Amino acid sequence: MNNDEYVKNMAGMFNFLAEVFYQKPCDELMETISILELPLFITKENNIDNHFRGKLDTLKQLSQTLVLDDIKQDYNALFIRPKGKLAYPWGSVYLSNNNRLFDQSTLLFMGFCKKNHLNFNLPQHQPMDHFGLMLVALVYCLELDLQDGQQRVKELLEQHLLSWSDRFLSLVIEHSTSHFYGVSAQLCQLLLTELTLSKELELKPVTLYK
Q1: What is the three-state SS of 127-157?
Q2: Model confidence pLDDT, tens digit, residues 150-198
Q3: Of 47, 60, 77, 100, which residue has the fewest beta carbons closer than 10 angstroms?
Q4: What is the pLDDT of residue 91?
């Protein structure tokens, strides 16, 4: 697999997972997952590829066997309900010492998006630093970096996403009652780990508050 194919595969995987974490579950999404082709999840590292194969097979099975209402209840408990979300999907909740939305880390990510001409048409008062939206930004940066050789992916991961994503994904794995989102989170962890290694990223330790 050459580098262009590798990057396009990575972009395709993150684009799929962005939809899983950002969009409310529906029959159409479950049908799409049930027919996912394995080549989309082929990566450079054979040992990681073997993990992908097992996780993807599990996710496809869950999409075919779970009752949609159970997945919706899981989604709501994890990400939506007004109080006591089990896995808050916004970075500032973890990076702000008072767990605030729209805190400094949100503004910094907004600045990154503006600098790179990445525009999200979001409902009013919705924070931009949602995990699913950051995956969309990652797809965008992977594709642009492939074209011009810049380092948008490195900046996005080191300065905006990886500081809190593992904590978020760990909470999803711990609290997902349907296991649908837990397996999706495990796929994300594998992908982000591979990308971290392939980009030789240098991650500075940060204090998390949730």
Answers
A1: CCCEHHHHHHHHHHHHHHHHHHCCCHHHHHH
A2: 999 999 999 999 999 999 999 999 999 999 999 999 999 999 998 898 8
A3: 47
A4: 98
Cα angle 7-10-14, degrees, rounded to a multiple of 5? 140
Give rounded-to-5 percent helix, strand, coil for the chain. Answer: 65, 0, 30
Distances (CA, A) of 53 to 38, 57, 88, 135, 166: 7, 6, 28, 21, 21
Token pair recorded at residue 168: 């978020």
φ and ψ at residue 162, rounded to 5 degrees: -70, -15
The model carries a pTM of: 0.93
Residue 69 to residue 180: CA distance in whole angstroms: 12
Token pair of 63, please?
């999409």
The number of beta carbons lying within 10 Å of the beta carbon of residue 14 is: 23
Short-list 177, 147, 164, CA closest to 206: 164
DSSP-derived secondary structure letter, 163: T
Structure tokens, 151: 């380092």
Lookup: tokens for 10: 């990575």
Q: How far is CA 114 from the centre of its chain?
A: 20
DSSP, collapsed to helix, strand or coil, labels residue 160 as helix
